[in-house]
Design brief:
Elements: H1 5-21, H2 36-59, H3 66-83, H4 101-109, H5 117-121, E1 145-146, H6 149-158, E2 168-178, E3 181-189, E4 197-204, E5 214-222, H7 229-232, E6 236-244, E7 253-254
Parallel strand pairs: 1-2, 3-7, 4-6
Antiparallel strand pairs: 2-3, 2-5, 3-4, 5-6
């Protein structure tokens, strides 16, 4: 069986990649939607390599009979005991190499969830400067207007024309907490979950749900200070309604 170890590892990895990208939307927990074709191609290529490796291994004759192989292993063990060092097992490599299959098997059977409040709480990087303060395009005439957390934050912090003034907006995100306040939060990614940064809006006038609960919050922006992160971060929202919602298939916003 150890002879087929590399082939099994390739097939497990291929199955995991194809499961999250070809047969569902789980890949959106890890990468942007535009990378799906590359994941599918990678999974298919890994699967093909695994099948080729298994076929080549099956065509290679075993060296000697079972008895001869056992004699060789006994001689190798005596040699290791005499010299105080070990070598790979003949024909299959060290057994510890099978541990490499565990991450692939875990991804295949138990895909990890999307990043949430734990990751957002650790995004303590510096906020951008106010050099980009200016006017934004008008919002749609509908009320309430659906905005991403990132767009709401940009308008609240940088819009000198205050296009959010008096408008009812609707934001969707997961709940985070800190310093007696709570926030509707979304993680913004450029490529994949590894480069995620947090955008958050502080919610006022409503009790805090449990962390990581997904909610849709409808409310009105509360202006505070002049444009620029030092005066208006994080942006504030006076809540009118807070509704629990299922986690979306694509939990991230694009940066």
């Amino acid at each position: 069986m150890r002879r087929y170890g590399p082939a099994v590892l390739l097939l497990l990895t291929a199955g995991a990649v194809l499961r999250i990208s070809l047969f569902g939307d789980l890949y959106l927990r890890y990468v942007q939607a535009g990378l799906r074709p590359y994941l599918i191609a990678s999974g298919a290529l890994l699967g093909l390599l695994g099948l080729v490796r298994a076929a080549l291994t099956g065509r290679t004759p075993r060296e000697g009979t079972d008895r001869e192989r056992a004699d060789r292993e006994d001689a190798l063990t005596e040699h290791q005991d005499a010299h105080g060092h070990g070598h790979s097992h003949p024909g299959g490599g060290p057994r510890v190499a099978w541990l490499l299959a565990l991450p692939a098997a875990a991804l295949l059977l138990f895909p990890p969830p999307a990043l949430g409040s734990y990751s957002a709480a650790r995004d303590e990087g510096p906020r951008p400067s106010a050099n980009g303060v200016g006017t934004f395009p008008p919002l749609p005439a509908v009320d309430p207007v659906d905005l991403s957390v990132a767009e709401f934050g940009s308008r609240a912090v940088y819009d000198s024309g205050r296009s959010l003034q008096g408008r009812t907006v609707r934001l969707t995100g997961f709940v985070t907490r800190g310093d007696g306040s709570w926030y509707v939060t979304r993680l913004l990614v450029g490529c994949c979950a590894a480069d995620a940064t947090a955008g958050r809006v502080e919610v006022l006038g409503a009790p805090a749900p449990e962390p990581d609960t997904w909610v849709t919050v409808t409310g009105i922006w509360r202006p505070e200070g002049g444009p620029g992160p030092s005066a208006t971060w994080p942006p504030l929202l006076d809540a009118r309604t807070v509704t629990r919602v299922p986690e979306p298939s694509d939990p991230y916003e694009k940066r």
